[in-house]
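Task card 7
Instruction: Convert sequence to structure tokens.
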Amino acid sequence: MPPKTDAQKKAQKKYMEHIATIQIRTTEERRETIKDHATSCGESVNVFINRAIDETMQRDNESDGE
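Output:
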């Protein structure tokens, strides 16, 4: 991969100013299972985990109204 240009570095730095990191702990085997599932859905692990969180929160909020 070619080195990043100064413009790319600047853009990445600006983007990262609005991004937070959440760390989770899991077994190596579970990590591979999550990675394989995300890949099979055509997603990155990050996209898959964020989608799973969003869907779960939406479902939880809908069940709170019952």
